[in-house]
Amino acid sequence: MTPDNLPTPAGYSHVVATDPGARLVVTSGQVGVIADGTVAEGWEAQTRQTFVNLGIALAAAGATWADVVKLTYFVVDTSELPLIRSVRDEFVDVAHPPASSLVQVAGLFRPDVLIEIEATAARP
User: Fold this and answer.
1) pTM of the model
2) What are phi and psi of 17, to 5 degrees?
3) Long-range contacts: 32-37, Cβ < 8 Å, 24+?
4) DSSP β-bridge partners for residue 24
5) What is the rounded distance in angstroms from the CA atom of residue 115 to the CA atom of residue 20?
6) How does pLDDT run across 69-113, given as a tens digit for each residue?
7) CA distance 51 to 84
8) DSSP run (H or E) holding 36
9) 81-88 vs 42-60: helix axis angle to the nearest 10?
10) Strand 68-75 versus strand 115-123 pairing type
């Protein structure tokens, strides 16, 4: 939902409401680390791998991208926001995007990690 008295959001929803009785699914922050422990190289590869990893985590709880109601991003640089949005749009329903928050941080748990994302989903 986007209330009339808030600015038009750029690819996210200001408010997402769930149905009563929905099952809440919350992921830990996911990063662009491949299953073998290597970090994907560069913003695009790390962002895409992060979304892939989020999808795997969601599926483990029986959720899909259609169930995601909130994404929280932690990035070391906001200049890559257009690229992040472009990759995100490959995964989320752009007609009904989740609510989102983005925080620029001084660093993440490893110096080669550029982005971390948490997802909250509501399963009917």
Assistant:
1) 0.89
2) -110, 145
3) 32/113, 32/114, 32/115, 33/113
4) 122
5) 33
6) 999 999 999 999 999 999 999 999 999 999 999 999 999 999 999
7) 10
8) none
9) 40
10) antiparallel
Sign of the alpha-carbon torsion through 74, 75, 76, 77: negative
Superfamily designation of domain 23-123: RutC-like (3.30.1330.40)
Distance CA 70, CA 13 (A): 9
- For residue 11, give both structure tokens: 């690819």
Phi and psi angles of residue 26, each rounded to the nearest 5 degrees, phi first = -125, 125
- Count Cβ atoms below 10 Å from residue 45 Cβ, excluding itself: 15
- Rg of the Cα trace of the chain? 14
How many CB atoms are closer than 10 A to CB 18?
15
Which conformational region is residue 37 in: left (phi greater than 0), alpha (psi within -120 to 50 degrees), or beta? left
- Find where tokens 């009904």 sit: 96
